[in-house]
Amino acid sequence: MPKLLKRLCIAVAFLAGSTGIALADFELNILHFNDFHSRIEPINKYDSTCSEKDRSEGKCFGGIARLKTAIDQRRKASDNVLVLSAGDNFQGSVFYTVYKGKAEAEFLDLIGLDANVLGNHEFDDGDEALASFLDNTNFPTIYGNALIGANSPLAGKMVEYVMKDFGNEKVAVIGAVTADTVELSSPSEAVLFMDPVLYLNDAVETVKAEGATVIIALTHVGVEEDKKIAAEVDGLDLIVGGHSNTLMSNTADNAHGPYPTMLTGPSGKQVALVHAYAHSKYLGDVTLVFADDGTLKSASGEPVLLDASVTPDPEMVKRIEEMAAPIQEKMDEVIAMASAAIDGNRESCRARECEMGNLVTDAMLDRVSAQGISIAIQNGGGLRASIDEGDITVGEVFTVLPFQNTLSTFKLIGSDVVAALENGVSQVEEGAGRFPQVSGLKYSFDLSLPPGSRTSNVMVEKNGSYEAIDLNATYGVVSNNFMRAGGDGYKVFAEKATDAYDYGPGLEDVVQAYLASNSPYKPYVGTRITEVTPKDTMAKGSEKTASASQMAKEDATAMKTAVDDAGRHIVKEGDNLWTLAEKYLGDPFKWGDIAKANPDQNPHRLEVGQQLNIPAKAN
């Protein structure tokens, strides 16, 4: 803050104190969403496009028209409102597939964003598609820690930060995108990414020098990285995050944590952290109140569920229908039936064998098996939605597989196949999209081991049975062109593959054809992927392992034993595992310990009067 401004502030504070007048608090209202992923139309409970049946039954959520209604209503009700997008507006529906960002640009402009930050998916179609999006928007997009070279078409089209004046207050919005964008997407070589923490520390000093009195970090790095930012970047008041599709809430049963989550910065200053899930299902709404000395007095709010109670903006609905007309007939075409819902949930497909992973990898292998290909590997992050029971439409498949990836076939020796699997399970704890869904292959992994040495029991299918992989043998592999180019850390595909062909049919076309040939499709999971952990680490040479379900039972038994040292709790109205974990264990993020201690209870459906076992608090 400039010296003259400091003196003026001191003088005003002195006068207020000497006359008994208290300066008014400053209230700032922030509306935010993240990971919109082109969900221009409403979604169903599976985050896929809402059907007419769902619409008629009032079971749709979100969509840009509902988002506009909610934002407009909040703006009318309050002063000092900021509307922020935390990145990944691209990719995820047929609107992006057809319009390549032009639809997103038009509709996001209409809701009146004050600031937008880059997400990794903004680079999915290279610098050119993002540049076109920026040319068609009137709101500022923050490049933050992205270093844009002069030879990129993005040069000069974004801002480093946004500064908004609210009376005497200057609110700065700085930003950062995950440094893994180079691996996760397709930026040109003219775009580099700094470490978010290093960049944001510098950015705070920059905006302070410009007179900022409130500093917001608008990030697309994921909730765990946001916690690191809060702990290591001094001077922040609020972090508005995205990338991990995290729901923070004080009322939702499946919330990751409270909204806002209060953290402590390097100098002891309180920092509020908020996330609002994804896909336009929620509108985050947080209110910050600052004392006249700039101290954050309070942070409160709750994401607004954009359900049937929110009426979509009629003018925007009309425009959506106009843009949807040319593609709707094709997208509504029924290609198959599903005998049950096909789980493509993020939490499933990025951590374990999932139904959608089996469908997609089976379809990939089916298409190319006649070419001598015996193994299919698909990144879980490339599976973007579930499919509900009943009719399966072209549009639903596009929603699951929106990236227009093509099949890539190539050859790898067995040791490189194992290396690829090691990469895939190296970041399971972070929910990374590189998790490998497979067909023609089985493997186990152990998260207690360091990355690079987690896999075991890698087996390949041969003549209807499985045998141990031969590390020196050559195998035919099918994946997608993104992974083959080294995306999601699969550098072994880019560097070690031979006889590669990256221009096969579109993955969505392959899956559509497979579903049509296997209708009604029955989703399933089997034993392709098994999470294991040693039962007896003292037994030398032993390979005794336990399945994930066995591990859960053992953990629950241990937790029940620990309860004897702690106690029990009778559920009262308003209780949830977050508040109970904070009360009894001193940390709301330890709610999972209470869940494990009560294996017969649904942790997301606490009923008043039920008895919960409370494990002993660790010293």
UniProtKB/TrEMBL annotation:
For whether the record's keyword set contains Signal, the answer is yes
**Protein name, per record:** 5'-nucleotidase C-terminal domain-containing protein
Task: From the UniProt annotation, give the residues forming the signal peptide.
Answer: 1-24
Locate the LysM domain: which residues?
567-614
Q: Which residues cross the membrane?
A: none
- An example of a Pfam family matching this protein is Metallophos
Q: Kindly give the Gene3D superfamilies that the UniProt entry links to this protein.
A: 3.60.21.10, 5'-Nucleotidase, C-terminal domain, LysM domain
Q: Is Signal a UniProt keyword of this protein?
A: yes
Q: Which InterPro entries does its entry note?
A: 5'-Nucleotdase_C, 5'-Nucleotdase_C_sf, 5_nucleotidase/apyrase, Calcineurin-like_PHP, LysM, LysM_dom_sf, Metallo-depent_PP-like
